Amino acid sequence: MTSYVVRRLVSLVPVLLWITILSFGIIHLAPGKPTDLAMQFNPRVSLEARERLTRLYGLDQPLHRQYLDWLHRVIRLDFGRSFLDDRPVIEKILERLPVTVMINLLSLGLVLVIAIPLGVLAAVRPHSLFDRATTVVVFLGYSMPSFWLALLLMAAFSVTLRWFPVSGLLSLAFAHVEFWDLIQHPLTHLAAWQDVAWHLVLPVTVTAFVSLAGLSRYTRSSMIEVLKQDYIRTARAKGLSERHVLFKHGLRNGLLPILTILGLSLPDLIGGSVISETIFSVPGMGRLFYEAVMARDYPVVMALVTIGSIFTMLGNFLADLAYAYADPRIRLSRETSP
Amino acid sequence: MNKLARWGLLVITALAVVAVAAPWLSPHDPLAVNLPEALLPPSPRHWLGTDQLGRDVLSRLIWGSRISLSIGFIAVGVAVSVGTVVGALAGYFGGWFDSVLMRLVDTLLSIPTIFLLLAIIAVDPAERLLVFTTYPVIGPFTTLLFQWIDPRLVVLMAAIGLMSWMGVARLIRAEVLSLKTREFVLAAYCLGASQWRIITKHILPNAIGPVLVSATLGVGGAILTESVLSYLGLGVQPPTPSWGNILNEGRVALGVAWWLTLSPGLCILVTVLAFNLAGEGIRERLLR
Amino acid sequence: MPLLSIEDLSVVYRHNGTSIRAVDQVSLTVEKGEVLAVVGESGCGKTSLALAITRLIQPPGEIETGRVVFQGHDLLKAPPSALRGIRGRHISYVFQDPATALNPVLTVGAQLREVIQLHTERRGTQADAYAVELLSQVGIPSPSERLDAYPHELSGGMRQRAMIAMAIASRPSLLIADEPTTALDVTVQVEILRLLKTLQETLGLSVLLISHDLTVVERICHRIAVMYAGKLVELGPVEEVFSNPAHPYTMGLLACRPTRAGANVSLAIIPGHSPDLAHLPSGCPFHPRCPVAIAACADVFPSLDEVGRGRTARCLKPFSKPDA
């Protein structure tokens, strides 16, 4: 198992490098130079100042040197300063990170809790009314633009029914509470947490909805495949109850591929935050990204592409590890193979 | 074939007809601004109401179908072309070439699509494209091309396409790898068939099925992606109507003019659903 | 009274409007302490017959008619809880391919313990000790280490022995073995058969052995039932049937066995193809391939007649030998 882990880790390195190259490369496709944009807000900047900034950003260096310099700084988590407010990019990101992570984790949890039982139930009774009904709902979920769903939910539940707040993370009453403070001292801010929870219901639902469709369908086909296997027949022949057969023999095998799928759905989950955070005005990484793109704040864009990708990659890696651990055929064979 | 899948194909055909016949089908001029008639609810004159500039929503939706379908098909065309080439080359030649390409595929799959797309769009590549018009030989052609089709749309189609070629590449590569060692390929090789011939006559025909499924589902995905981008203001720019940007314009009037939000959304839903059903239907057909 | 009595059992598979009768009105009995072989080509219904005994047939298959009487009760009418009490406890199965018949993500010990805890009174360390005992009884070396092994870590022969261990854990009265050696190497086949024979004698088991390999049958079986196209075509004691087969199909099968005859003797075959169960020939299903068929064979479906003491055959002209 350890050699497998090591080998997987090693294979991540070229991917990491590619990610940094792509992030760097895209931004340098931008017309003009970063200095031009920084100058936009201040036309009276002298030639000297321009030259100073050019040297500061290393723009007079050949491209590969610029890349290496950037890479050096990135490794130390220095992504430069935002063009908008000159604050360190990493600071802006860290502020928003917990919110996005929270939304994504909650969504993931919701997805798992709903999609897997749905898929399993559909697999146990294929072609039944339940199966067909869930298939219809799943297809609708696949085909619906998530932002449209967000708008409809907002119109229905926030504006018309007034069940949930329209936007933001905290109501005005709690505007004074700092988010990091909230995380570090949860118990003292219980009321604030309740407020947060209320604000998060719609964004989490929207983010979860799209992944839900895919995962439940996949669970269904995986379970159907598993239930056709010989060892299920053996289990029944042993006299085990259907329930025992399903849970102990069926699920143990059927859920394995789900791990891989979970890993693969991470990019969509993170990308989906852009939409739900923007629509519901939640101050997370997704919305930061959107604002940075609109304002052409390149350092932030570069940083978020890199960080978002690395998160996804790590998520995938963890999913693979979990799979390798859970499936004894993989877990053990690596150790004993020559 | 599956009843629902047939329905999907029907809808797609109908949509294609609508898109092509847009100039004749659309009751009003989609770009005609008519402020006194702004924000009218559905009525006999305006079946789906009007937007805040008084433009007829139904006409805009009909013209919008052109945008959605063309972006969808062209983006998938790009994806399938690039994916097939990359996948075939990687699978056939193998070795470090294959490893490098597959790492690239893994990387692109790791980057959240929206992130990459937005990042690409943030750098205004359209302007870069205009540079081509100044080149000696291809200049005049590109100028003509850009008069017919907005370079930003070209960028959009290419960008969306470049987000989805990876799946196709993997499919083709897997197909190539599995067929590379099959007897009939070895036999063809021994009989002196060139590598090119082997690839095109033996390997690709077997791979068409899964690729077709992927492409059909991909059109739906591309349409969704375009709508998201247009909604965020980074896709098709107004006044050109796209279902996504109609939704964007309708957002501010959400409380009062629900028809601006409901109808474009339904269009997207029905269209993408049709492609998804058709794609799944093709997949089931293939499995038999 | 026989241990198991199958009466007029029929199993049907329905798909897209066509129905296939995999088992057609088959009747046979298994006596206490005997090994009954059920023989026939692939697809002739043997496995369906075996699964139907304890109602393990899954949709799209269903048991259409018949009775399966075991210990005085008709299993086909028993409530599901009663069935579960019989499966694995009084009637056990050993399936064909141990590679797929064992759950790959559970240890051998876990799967063995399942049966022990379900059907015996043993728990905890007692159960483990019994598991080790069972594994050594089936001839697995270092049994206590093997408990924690996963199926993929064992060789084919070991896996099949483990399956047999699971099947005998509850000291069943009937063991149904569906082609237990087909997926194994030839050398291993012999060992497994010997094991089955030993267990049968020491534990007083009755065995329903399904096979398409007549050499296997000859080794350990007392009686043989021959099936063709879902129907029973011959039944009788092994020595008698082998030395003097009644049904032409049985003759053909026996002739097909590779022998150590001279180098220039060609292998015998039964001409034609296996029947398409969806489109069976009229009359006797074997008649298109039968070397001694007469005109009546295409019109009349023969009944199962007595052709000797304890022997039956479904043929209009039993014991007819083809002209050489």
Task: Describe the protein in words.
In chain A, 77% of the residues lie in helices and 0% in strands. Chain A contains 16 helices and no strands. Chain A has helices at residues 2-27, 34-40, 47-57, 63-75, 89-124, 129-143, 146-160, 179-184, 190-227, 230-237, 242-254, 256-264, 266-279, 285-294, 298-326, 328-336. In chain A, helix 5 (89-124) packs across helix 9 (190-227), helix 9 packs antiparallel against helix 13 and helix 13 (266-279) crosses helix 14. The two termini of chain A are 13 Å apart. Chain B has 288 residues and is mainly alpha-helical. Chain B contains twelve helices and no strands. By secondary structure, chain C is of the alpha/beta class. Helix content of chain C is 31%, strand content 24%. Chain C is built from eleven helices and twelve strands. Chain C has helices at residues 46-53, 80-86, 98-101, 108-119, 124-137, 143-146, 156-168, 186-203, 214-220, 238-243, 248-255, and strands spanning 4-15, 18-30, 35-39, 61-70, 73-74, 91-94, 174-178, 206-211, 223-228, 231-237, 305-308, 311-313. Chain C is globular. The chains are: A mainly alpha (338), B mainly alpha (288), C alpha/beta (324). Chains in contact: A-B, A-C. Chains A and C meet through helix 10, helix 11 and helix 16 of A and helix 2 and helix 4 of C.
Strand and helix map with partners:
The complex is a heterotrimer of chains A (338), B (288) and C (324).
Chain A: H1 2-27, H2 34-40, H3 47-57, H4 63-75, H5 89-124, H6 129-143, H7 146-160, H8 179-184, H9 190-227, H10 230-237, H11 242-254, H12 256-264, H13 266-279, H14 285-294, H15 298-326, H16 328-336
Chain B: H1 3-20, H2 22-25, H3 57-93, H4 95-110, H5 113-122, H6 125-130, H7 139-148, H8 151-180, H9 183-190, H10 195-231, H11 243-251, H12 259-287
Chain C: E1 4-15, E2 18-30, E3 35-39, H1 46-53, E4 61-70, E5 73-74, H2 80-86, E6 91-94, H3 98-101, H4 108-119, H5 124-137, H6 143-146, H7 156-168, E7 174-178, H8 186-203, E8 206-211, H9 214-220, E9 223-228, E10 231-237, H10 238-243, H11 248-255, E11 305-308, E12 311-313
Parallel strand pairs in C: 3-8, 3-9, 6-7, 7-8
Antiparallel strand pairs in C: 1-2, 1-4, 4-5, 9-10, 10-12, 11-12
Helix pairs in contact in C: 4-5, 4-7, 5-7, 7-8
Mean pLDDT of chain C: 86
Q: Biggest β-sheet of chain C, characterized?
A: 8 strands, mixed
Shape of chain B: globular
Helix share, percent of chain B: over 70%
The proportion of residues in beta strands of chain C is 15-25%
Helix content of chain C: 25-40%
Which pair has the most extensive contact? A-B, 50 and 46 residues
Oligomer status: heterotrimer
Count of extended strands of chain C: 12
Rg value of chain B: 22 Å
